[in-house]
Automatic annotation (TrEMBL):
Residues 19-163 form the MobA-like NTP transferase domain. The keyword Cytoplasm applies. This is Probable molybdenum cofactor guanylyltransferase. It comes from Candidatus Brocadia sapporoensis. Its EC number is 2.7.7.77. One of its GO terms (molecular function) is GTP binding. GTP binds at residues 22-24, 34, 79, 108. It is an enzyme of class 2 (transferase).
Amino acid sequence: MEKVSWCQYYKEGELYVTAIILAGGKSLRMGYNKAFLKYGVKTFIEHQIARLTKIFDEIILSANDASAYAYLNLPIVSDVISGKGPLSGICAGLIRSTSSHSFVIACDMPFLDEKVILCLKDRIDNYDVVVPQTSRGLEPLHAFYSKNCIQPIRRCLDEGRLRIIDFFADVKVRIVCEQELNGLDGSTSSLTNLNTPEEYQKYLDHMISDERKL
């Protein structure tokens, strides 16, 4: 196994972490590629990149249609095994990542909050997965994963076990409960994803309402 420089994973005493945006979903309920839904003049994925750039030094896109995202000028990886869902995209991103841990986020989460992301990052320690849990359950598409997850994920893909949480039993997992996030203003919104045209319209109405309050 190739040795990795300690300083590659740490920058100025802090853990160096990559962000991986999953943009390979079929968006069946939305009827339109959710990455390219717009608020203002920017698409969802452009808003995400703008926020993530403030936190991460490396951003990777996991998408099977590289040409559609080429204009973003970011590294793009395709699924390790096509047709296997987000688990395959996570695996591809982790393989490409130059850091020990990566923050994985779905492209349909437009309310990303820096405080929530940093709260999760601060809990990495020696864990392979740091995942928030709300009343809806675990939120594995807004979570941190280490490179130690690659082989367990590959086994799940080979065995046809495609739920993201299927490999959790084989790695060290830190669940960040809702109570730990409650003190953060953006805790609820940061974990919100949009799946339908109705949810998208509600999002637009919410953003317009917030602008009017300013």
